[in-house]
Amino acid sequence: MRLVIIGGGILGTAHALAAVDRGHEVVQLERETEARGATVRNFGLVWVSGRSADELAITLRSRQLWEEIGGRIPGVGFRPAGSITLVRTEAELAVAEAAASGPTATERGFELLDPERVRAVNPALRGKFLAGLHCSADGAVESRQAMPALRAYLESTGRYSFYAGTEARTVTGSTVLDDRGRRWEADLVLVCPGAAHTGLTRELVGDIPVRRVRLQMMQTAPLGEPLTTAIADGDSFRYYPGFAGPALDTLNREESQAFTAAQHRMQLLCVQRLHGGLTIGDTHEYDEPFAFDVDEAPYDHLTAVTEELLGRALPPVVRRWAGVYSQSIDPAAIVTRVRATDNVWVITGPGGRGMTLGPALGAQTADLLNL
After folding, report:
1. Residue of 195, 280, 284 whose CA lies nearest to 9
2. Tens digits of pLDDT across the chain (371 residues)
3. How buried is residue 164: exposed, middle or buried, by Cβ count under 10 Å (0-12/13-18/19+)?
4. How far apart are CA 185 and CA 188, in angstroms?
5. Rounded to 5°, angle at Cα 151 from 149 and 155
6. Residue ranges of the chain assigned to CATH 3.50.50.60
7. CA 153 → CA 80, 164, 359, distances in Å?
8. Topology at the third CATH level for domain 83-136+210-328
9. Which among 118, 174, 278, 353 is placed 20 to 30 Å from 305, CA to CA?
10. What pTM was estimated for this model as a whole?
11. Nearest by Cα to 211 from 332, 336, 322
12. Beta carbons of 358 and 10 less than 8 angstroms apart
């Protein structure tokens, strides 16, 4: 078959990879010269630890696929680094203990470590904490270099072409007309628009059950030592459904987040990039219109928490950014797939799970459509 995939982010590229791996031909169109949305404005984390029980199977499948992809495409920078969620209060410790003894703990690679064992796994963590929930299943990729690496591999097959700076204007039947007047004939059209819910997306399927979420993040200069795992703080328990239960209810009832953290719906996630710098975030904003500027208070909070856990000052911050991703409104929906016509589908809304779940979602779509 011949597919036209509209959108050059992780979801569109994962679908291209799934199709090419099944022997099909793919033309991929991206309106920017390079993916510039949530695909590159994220941690690059392949995050197993906090996914709900309903998401766990597809998350573990995606983790397996990322490892396979990293083996054949080293440029994506996959590494099975794992993560440690560091807890600083008794209520947070109770959530970590419940997770480490829960029914899916083995699948997630959970183990609760005392401070000495935390430092044995990740010697850079010399700060203040009671314990750490280690998740050996978590991994990371290099979000800013993964898409070019995947495209280079796809192009090497001879069955893939990428057209940057090309905006799809209309889809008639299964023919795509772009902004340069070119017509792209296909057996199947997959539209992966990210957070672009208007324009072509709305023309094809109207208003769909997704919303946009804004985040803020930052990156430091090289740390000067390895941060061997990704790290998170206890606030992250509040944002991941895998930690739901009586212990989390008690945490939320007895311990409020700091004002800035609560105001900006924050958690600390931190991962070291291959160049040595740290990507640190993040915030969550749900009510549009979003601000066009960034707020400094969240950065101050994240800096303070990271320094407390590391037990040292952070290197200078070299860049800050905001981003917007698409999230399905139904909390039970991992992604939103809407059929526009027999041969045209719109696929979006994985929320903050796009990088984690991209390969599995692409494979799942291929199976659903009998590719």
Report:
1. 195
2. 999 999 999 999 999 999 999 999 999 999 999 999 999 999 999 999 999 999 999 999 999 999 999 999 999 999 999 999 999 999 999 999 999 999 999 999 999 999 999 999 999 999 999 999 999 999 999 999 999 999 999 999 999 999 999 999 999 999 999 999 999 999 999 999 999 999 999 999 999 999 999 999 999 999 999 999 999 999 999 999 999 999 999 999 999 888 899 999 999 999 999 999 999 999 999 999 999 999 999 999 999 999 999 999 999 999 999 999 999 999 889 999 999 999 999 999 999 999 999 999 999 999 999 99
3. middle
4. 9
5. 120
6. 1-78+141-209+333-370
7. 21, 16, 15
8. D-Amino Acid Oxidase; Chain A, domain 2 (3.30.9)
9. 353
10. 0.96
11. 336
12. yes
Structure tokens at 6: 């509209």
In which residue are the tokens 């941690």 written? 43
Domain 1-78+141-209+333-370 classified CATH 3.80.30.20? no
Whole-angstrom distance, CA of residue 355 vs CA of residue 9: 10
